[in-house]
Fold:
Amino acid sequence: MKTALLEELQQARTEKRQVVLATNLKSGDQKLLYPFETEYSSDLSEAARNALRSDKPATFEAEDGPVFLNIFNPPLRLFIVGAVHIAQALVPMAAAADYEVTVIDPRRSFGSSFRFPNVTLDNRWPDEAFESLSPDRRSAIVTLTHDAKLDDPALQFALKSDAFYIGALGSGRTHAKRQQRLISAGFTETDFSRIHGPIGLDIGAKSPAEIAISIMAEIIAVLRRKEVK
Amino acid sequence: MTNPTTTLPEDDILAQALNWKKDGRKVALATVISTWGSAPRPAGSQLAIDETGQMAGSVSGGCVEGAVIQEALEIIKSGAPKTLEFGVSNDEAWEVGLACGGKINVFVEKLD
Structure:
């Protein structure tokens, strides 16, 4: 491997880009692929996309020999808006599933390290926090505040991001009102359909911990399967 | 507020390889490219080796690292990449002890 190529790879990883190192196992020739950053499609780029999506390296049979596709995915991240009771249960579950978790809540009595030890707390408004945290294709965003003043700016930002999962707590009725607000803010029905609401898999969850389990299960299902409704 | 966009884990193997290289050492990289059965480390796992035999990371959790290092030192000299096979069907693998009964292929290359 050329040192310059390794430096480029490390730079891409630092920037949290999804990158694949393709190595021809016969010749040793190597290149970096960024298959999600281009419209260009070939069998190789499709294989690279699949490897990144499934989080597993793969070997692609090219004409000039097998090509090993080693994947470098940024860490999975979960942004929880609303330092509420459900969030307290969700944080350790997400951490156990290897997500880097950030809890966002400008109301300091909610988002305090007393209530949330061992997790990154962000006391900025959601849209301001997201501006610098830049949620990406490997990020999940969950809003739990029940308060449109906090949830809506977060959802508006989320819909403009590549986050693979967006979920909003609230009943069917709350969700319908939310839909009206976001549509009048300029979002389309298709945009809105990205939001999972009412949030979580339908397992009849009642307690905060059970709701957290249903949310985590839905996030995993969306990440690992292609489409879940 | 911490900025999460600019860090890699402290134990990053590729960062270690790059540091060694910048120190003026000769470096090889080994990568698990395929596994069968109960292999201890999945495909994509990496081991960095410097010219003195120092290593960072793992390709098998200790079973075949010794043999990989020997080959890596040769590849550092020759510059030609090579795929190594370890497994039940390979007598040498038993000698170096892939006791789990799995099979792994490891691609070893020099960092030029």
